[in-house]
Specification:
The complex is a heterodimer of chains A (about 100) and B (about 375).
Chain A lengths: L22 E5 L4 E5 L4 E2 L3 H8 L7 H12 L3 H17 L6
Antiparallel strand pairs in A: 1-2, 2-3
Helix pairs in contact in A: 2-3
Chain B lengths: L9 E5 L26 H14 L3 E5 L9 H10 L3 E6 L8 H8 L3 E5 L5 H8 L4 H14 L4 E7 L7 H10 L4 E6 L4 H5 L1 H4 L3 H17 L5 E5 L19 E4 L5 E2 L20 H7 L1 H5 L24 H8 L16 H17 L20
Parallel strand pairs in B: 1-2, 1-8, 2-3, 3-4, 4-5, 5-6, 6-7
Antiparallel strand pairs in B: 8-9
Bound molecules: iron/sulfur cluster (2 copies).
Subunit structure (chain A): Monomer. Interacts with PqqE.
Organism (chain A): Mesorhizobium zhangyense
Protein name (chain A): Pyrroloquinoline quinone biosynthesis peptide chaperone PqqD
Amino acid sequence: MTLTRERRIVSSQATPSLPRHVRIQFDPVRQAWSVLSPEKVFWPNDISLDILRRCNGSTTIGTLISDLAAEYDAPEEDVAGDVTAFLQEWSDNLLVKL
Amino acid sequence: MSELLLPPIGMLAELTHRCPLQCPYCSNPTELMKANRELDTQTWLYLFRQAADLGVLQVHLSGGEPTLRRDLEQLVAGLSSRGVYTNLITAGVGIAEGRIRALAEAGLDHVQLSFQGARAATTERIGNNRGSHEKKLETARRVKAAGLPLTVNAPIHRHNIEEVPDFIELALSLGAERLEIANVQYSGWALVNRDALMPDRASVERQVEIVEAARERLRGIMNIDFVTPDYFATYPKPCMGGWARDAFMVAPDGTVLPCHAAHTIRSLTFERFGDRSLAEIWTDSPAFNAFRGTGWMQEPCRSCDRREIDWGGCRCQAMAIAGDPAATDPACAKSPIHARMSMLIEDALATARADGSNDATTFVYRRIAAVQEPV
Ligand code: SF4
Ligand code: SF4
């Protein structure tokens, strides 16, 4: 059959967003941020959370990387590698829209 | 209890046992409850508030057919107001026009729709319901039209294992985000119908190849979850993520259980919501504590380095096949009676050959009082 959808690949111009079925939420019982999705609950670390919070449909991945590099005072190449791998994985799992 | 008790994350709410279909592998108990034993709206809402307070983040609304509850929108709204993620598990037959949209508006997060077959004739034969396939297709379209994410659930057994490629195409054509290829777990009605449902080894191996290739091809397009068949396994699954570890289920009458087949362990007594609070049941119920953690384990689990990976497998399968709920799940190659799994496969296939019936004529369809529970 012809595929109407295609696998999306991370690029610096892409503006990632969270699909409707993925929600970031603070859990008062565990005092931690959670990401809720159809079958799984994730407990993101600070960096993952910072990436996901910037998935607002208007920030480009390029901007996202420079922002995080500035915030964490880390070299952009390192941040770029981590962010790209993270977003590609989340996109492949249909948890982030690119 | 030496281990730290954590709050539960997930809950399966079996709102009703009523269902328009009669799948011979249904995971409901063979002793089905009638509508008059179901909790009323206010009790469910109260239970859901307690669940949220306790730390439950995700509720799977199931049955039977949960949309037969006329108060489903109210129940979804109650959960949604507490930020609980709601997943509707439906057979998608007989849902009135406009209802999916109303559920979405009430805050429903996700729909999981089952297909008994990828072809209409199979769906109708397995669920014993004429016209059901077309209705499911319509439900899938309504789910997408309401903007809800869709998982197609395909319970796999001998009568539809050759349709796995068609299930993949079907799920793609419906725009599903996820497809569950879920080999039937032999508890409840599936245990009664085991001989009629068991696939042969060659079909299982073919299926594994097809699913693996499709997963690769569809990376980033559609997720395929594969629930492998226990009887053909080397290691068991971590049933429910471990007994009473991060999830539980509630039966239509409010009985709270660690998993949907736990009632088959007759030595345990399960408590009802209302007699005690959810928090009390979760922390103190002897049935919940019976197989929590690793302290209850015997050898070979006790000294196995996988004991906190699969938690010794399924207690109900240990009960059903080893006759001892504290035994190692016989699906595990280290179980002293692991060979019995292969014997059961052979027996099932021999029975099918002897009947000359590879068709569905030997199904015991899921109905109230169709089988007596063994005592
Ligand atoms: S498995 Fe079939 S009979 Fe059982 S609840 Fe689901 S649709 Fe109904
Ligand atoms: S022996 Fe027990 S803990 Fe080890 S793999 Fe088998 S079931 Fe799991």
